[in-house]
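hey m, so remember when u said the tokens were messed up on ur end? i reran from scratch. heres the input so u can diff it against urs
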Amino acid sequence: MTIVLTNDDGIDAPGIMALRQALNGRAAAIVAPEQPLSGCSHQINRGGPITIGARHCDEYAIGGTPADCTRVALSHLYPQAQWLLSGINAGGNLGADIHVSGTVAAVREAALLRIPGIALSHYIHRGRPIDWTLAIRLATKVLERLLAHPPKAGQFWNVNLPHLTMADPEPELVFCPLCTQPLPTDFVVEGDQFHYVGDYSQRRYDPDSDVAVCFGGQISVTPIHLW
């Protein structure tokens, strides 16, 4: 099985290395943006050149967006790929986040190309650092389950890891719907400048949605349907 890994935090981000470790030795190639592009959504190159920088065996830094990385990987570098995984994003991609997330866009593009995919993100609670050793363990648990159950055509998995410590109880995988509530839009205006000041951890959420599950200390797993 050939698996392609990408992200929107950039090829040097710790999350993508954690994702590779979580695969427990499965064959995987990294095709990721050469620089951080968090929040770039589903932007794609509109006709200019896309640089393909070969770093090591099966590792490429791409001069484009996460969706560009998916296109380059699945159409050129690894057309035989059977899965595309994106992450582990440093920050949650819950509910309305999926519409602005580059992490999720990479997997959405794979679904459009008829390749199954999983977007993995790690919620950050109030600026606390991520314990990547713990994140690897949780991601391994997720991948062991989901790689055995490919999504249907036109779907992909969106996964969010809760922000736990080693002392917390082992989280469960909870299959749940996407939250329908908007992101916080609290703001202040200073002169002619508008600033968002909303607290992500205080966002509104639907009961039993992915936000509720992840904030409650469990691993949220949401099937996203394109058709």
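this time it looks ok to me. The chain has five helices and eleven strands. if urs says something different then somethings off w ur setup not the seq
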